[in-house]
Amino acid sequence: MKHLLIGLMLSLNLTVQAQPSYSNVQARISEDSQTLLIQIDVHKHGQDIHYKQAFDVSDMNGLQIDLLKYRVFASQDITLPFHEMKRLMGAVLGAIIVIALAIAVIIVRRPTNKGTRSTSEKKQVQVT
Q1: Where are the domains of the chain?
Q2: 87 pLDDT exceeds 90?
Q3: 51: which strand partners?
Q4: CB neighbourhood size of 73 (10 A)
Q5: pLDDT attached to residue 21
Q6: CA distances from 68 to 34, 55, 74 (A)
Q7: What is the pLDDT of residues 36-49, one digit of tens each?
Q8: Rounded to an integer, what distance in angstroms lies between the CA atom of residue 70 and that of residue 76?
Q9: Do 33 and 56 meet the contact criterion of CB atoms below 8 Å apart?
């Protein structure tokens, strides 16, 4: 558990320290039940980059839509704002909690042999 927390803190630290390679980002995300429209305008390394794409999301669930948003922003080397990936963050946090609980259950149920003797050892001690 300690190693998991250290790894999580280290990755968070690296994320916070990462310097953006862009100076100005304007993003607009429009979403309805059928279509997801992502428009990104970035000034990066002296160049203006414009991205505009519409996606059919009629057969996607919320988590898949958040993952699509993340992939689009990652393809442009831009960090997706946290408020745009609530479901994705919730799924990751839920997975971490489930793993931590599973580890805790394994640790609690693991038999310990320290200080306990089997009944045959106890009988031998009493006979002698």
Answers
A1: 21-111
A2: no
A3: 40
A4: 21
A5: 57
A6: 14, 9, 10
A7: 999 988 887 788 88
A8: 10
A9: no
Tokens representing 2?
């300690």
pLDDT in tens, 51-66: 999 999 999 988 888 8
Cross-strand partners of 29? 38
- Whether 82 shows a pLDDT value over 90: the answer reads no
Contact between 81 and 48 under an 8 Å Cβ cutoff? The reply is: no
Backbone phi and psi for residue 15, each to the nearest 5 degrees, phi listed first:
-65, -40
Angle at 103 between CA 63 and CA 92, to 5 degrees: 15
CA triplet 93, 91, 9: central angle to 5 degrees?
30
Number of C-beta neighbours around residue 17 at 10 A: 7
Query: Cα–Cα distance between 106 and 43 in angstroms, integer?
Result: 51
Query: How many C-beta atoms lie closer than 10 Å to residue 78's C-beta?
Result: 19
Q: Which of 53, 51, 58 is nearest to 32 (CA)?
A: 58
Assigned token pair, 82: 């946290």
pLDDT at 32: 87
